[in-house]
Amino acid sequence: MDAIRSKEAWRVLRIQAELVEGIDKLATIGPSVTIYGSARLGEESLYYQKAEELAARFSEAGLNVLTGGGPGIMEGANRGAYGKGACSIGLNITLPREEMANRYQDLGVNFRYFFVRKLMLVKHAVGFVVFPGGFGTLDELFEALTLVQTGKIAPFPIILFGESYWAGLMDWLGQRMLEEGCIGAADMKLMQVTDSVDQAYRTVLSAYREQGRSTRDNLTDTD
């Protein structure tokens, strides 16, 4: 029993160290856009290409781009941002099936714990653009939605890129969650769906400019 308690105590220290390191390395990055989606959609995918195009526009406008640092959509976004003016940042995660960090990163931070990485994905975000993906993408999407809905973070645009991909989810949210009274009509407006790089870019940029901030820490006093 003492050995179990000791192991758990050391785990707490590892979590604390990872949290401190992440906050320290990202402390001065300033406003950023988080882009994520499937690690399985390579450069032949239209979504990869759109993520690359969108990230390049954000970087040229002076907004850093944050991703999960891996292959697929994450690589496309980092690739688009890399060398375009702002910082291309990868928040890499250790997984049982090792996924190497993509090479298009000005700054890479390694994480062991998903929940610590998810905190870093929202802490400096002025917008989320969510491309098609799997369980991990949905986890990050609903984490952001819950934090905005409950006022735990300052609101920012959450954009679902790929109208046909997200249509079924949006229908289910409206026809089940909303109709059953589990969410409100205002909650449905927390997300926008588009196929347009230009619309996604302008939505995030306009919201950021309206906030009138040169730096951003999304966490509110209610945390």
Automatic annotation (TrEMBL):
The keyword Hydrolase is assigned to this record: yes
InterPro entries reported in the protein's UniProt record: LOG (IPR005269), LOG_fam (IPR031100), LOG_family_nucleotidases (IPR052341)
EC number of this enzyme: 3.2.2.n1
Keyword terms of this UniProt record: Cytokinin biosynthesis, Hydrolase
Lineage, highest ranks first: Bacteria, Pseudomonadati, Pseudomonadota, Gammaproteobacteria, Oceanospirillales
Any Pfam family hit: Lysine_decarbox
SUPFAM superfamilies in alphabetical order: MCP/YpsA-like
Reaction equations catalysed: AMP + H2O = D-ribose 5-phosphate + adenine
Protein family per UniProt: Belongs to the LOG family.
Species this protein is from: Alcanivorax quisquiliarum
This protein's name: Cytokinin riboside 5'-monophosphate phosphoribohydrolase
